Amino acid sequence: MVKRSRIIAFFLLVVLLGGMMGTTAEKIVKNIKLGLDLQGGFEILYEVKPTKEGEKITKDVLLSTVSALNKRINVLGVSEPRIDVEGNDRIRVQLAGVKDQNKAREILSTEAKLTFRDVHDNVLMDGSDLVEGGAKQTFDDKGKPSVAIQLKDANKFKEVTQKVLSMAPNNVLVIWLDFKEGVDSYAKEVGKEHPKFISAAQVNEVFNQTDVSIVGNFTVEEAKQLADLLNAGALPVELKEIYSTSVGAQFGEQALQKTIFAGIIGIALVFLFMLIFYRLPGIVAVVTLSVYIYLILLVFDWMNGVLTLPGIAALILGVGMAVDANIITYERIKDELKLGKSLMSAYRIGNRGSFGTILDANITTIIAGVVLFAYGTSSVKGFATMLIISILASFITAVYGTRLLLGLLVKSRLFDKKPHYFGVNPKDVLDIAKVTDDTDVPTKFARLDFVKRSKLFFIISGAMFAIGLVLLLTAKLNLGIDFSSGTRVDLMSEKSLTTEEVKQELKQLQLEPKDIVLSGNNNEMAIVRFLGVLDQKEISKLKSHFKEKYGVEPNVSTVSPTVGKELARNAFISVLIASIGIIIYITVRFEMYMAIAAIVALLHDAFFIIAFFSLTRLEVDLTFIAAVLTIVGYSVNDTIVTFDRIRYLMKKRKVKTVDDLKDVVNKALQQTFGRSVNTVLTVVFTVVALLLFGSEAIRNFSFALLAGLISGTYSSLFIAAQLWLVWKAKQLKKGKQKRDQLEAEPEV
């Protein structure tokens, strides 16, 4: 009897969810903060150094520096800056949405130590003599911009002007900002057209007052900036840039638009695939995946998280990965239907049998995500955060959401004896009366003998390893500045660029690039790399020049040799820790041999990606490490599903000989092959969409993922399970030999 109330409840629930998401999604999306790589801005890692010899950088000094930087950022009008203390002597500053990046960098790094000196560079007064917040931009009696300041003590200024007056004809009061002892001097600067000192005024009378005007060749903007700096206060330390990345607003806007478009295409392909291949459960998958996307955005909004470009990529990839849980469940239900079980029975057994597999598969990816978060930089942390949230959200929607919605349809009894609604051909359904515990699930891949050709697979992998090793030893990797240090500049123009044109423009700036690579559909983009780290003035000139030339502010990233080595070390440590964590988990949940086989397969995948990048000369950067760790987590998913099926078959059958063991592995691979292909296809849809339509900034990341997905599917089917079989067969033979020996020993 059909229970129509279940069908009505299903549609009401879908309408309710659709209405809730439709009315609130736009507001949630608007509330989410965009990272600097999506709205423009910059990130700088400063090394904090003492201004005087013998001084130490303490926690209090770092905190007072952060306070001073916050005051300066308030001057810039950036609404939500982020300043973090890292370690014992580093401060990281992130400013998203800042309009004038050159001005912002200058204001942040300028120490703003004001000194009044005589012509012999002796200090007469300094910033401590100024009234706090007493500086303002004004105009002098000739109408020129100036800076008015208030002094604390009129008598002290009287003494200073009296002393300078007595030094006639050298009666000049020189005002400096950030005077460098042993480097700067009045004598060296006085003859220059643009001297380093702010002002050099002749003192012809004694002044007994607190109101003083600093007059120089200022523009209104320069005078206002100086007043703001003096009001913000001097930095108690010297800041040295050791890592920086800046993104022009137009680069960020383009990256956002292209990646969202790629995401729409990738997700639409996943939805279409699920509808065609799984039919009724596919409809449920589309609903739960839509809720999954909504939940992720909602949680990110609640967390006050910052959405980065890799974060959007993780969200898009997450859809492909989240559907994995649906596919595992649906395939188990299809298996039971093929064995002649009723729809209700197949639904219950499928849900119960898939839960542990889904849990194991997701935890391994979480391990990789946690390691990425612990050792990654800000953009990689954004990717890791989104990845972890995606996995948790997929567990709620794909497991519990699917059970609820699919359960309503199944329990309605409307689809009883209609297996085609669940993607099962009625011809493949066995007679339940003839099914026993030893009956295998009918599969299209029953004729494939995976075990028979195991040696061939090992030979292929061995050959690939040898070729990859030769490539790495000869061609090596094309390391980006993240690992090799230096400067990278991304240029964008409305017209096509040529290498010679870019070289000529850089020559005007007296800059010699290491290499120039053109990209984009019409070569409208150029990636320029420099061996050295450009300083703040060089970056400022470069940004201004190309913004004026092409109308788009370029992206500039710098990495010092020290930070480059740290990033390389952290990358190695992160892969190592993730691998150890996965070994431990699989050992606990399965067994040691399976854990070792899984890790060998993972190393195979990681090496394949590295060799692929060596062959293609694609640049290796931080997102490459994120891709490797993502594949490490995701590839294990596939391996775990295979191992789970092997464990299931081992419990059903009595394995006494090596042939029995081979049969179990072969059957497990045959039965999971379809699922492996389907799950990798859904992720490939999203990765290819990112590759073809996404931002150039994550192009190499997408290439690494695609190479890893292909290698991961291969290793799960032809390396991990086959290795386990070899080791388990040896263990079985040893056990048989011991038993034979015991039986052969005469009784005493």
Task: Sum up the structure in keywords.
13% strand; SecD/SecF_arch_bac; Alpha-Beta Plaits; 748 residues; Gyrase A, domain 2; four-stranded antiparallel beta sheet; Multidrug efflux transporter AcrB transmembrane fold; transport; 4 domains; translocation; alpha+beta; protein-transporting ATPase activity
Task: Describe what this molecule looks like in 3D.
Helix 10 runs antiparallel to helix 11, helix 11 runs antiparallel to helix 17 and helix 17 packs parallel to helix 19. The model has no long low-confidence stretch (mean pLDDT 86). The protein has four domains: 56 residues, Alpha-Beta Plaits; 121 residues, Gyrase A, domain 2; 390 residues, Multidrug efflux transporter AcrB transmembrane domain (Multidrug efflux transporter AcrB transmembrane fold); 74 residues, Alpha-Beta Plaits (2-Layer Sandwich), CATH 3.30.70. Strand 16 and strand 17 form a beta hairpin. An eight-stranded antiparallel β-sheet has the order 3-4-2-12-18-15-17-16. It has a four-stranded antiparallel β-sheet with strand order 6-5-9-10. Helices cover 61% and strands 13% of the residues. It is of the alpha+beta class and 748 residues long. It is elongated and about 115 Å long. Pfam families: Sec_GG, SecD_1st, SecD_SecF_C. GO terms for molecular function: protein-transporting ATPase activity.
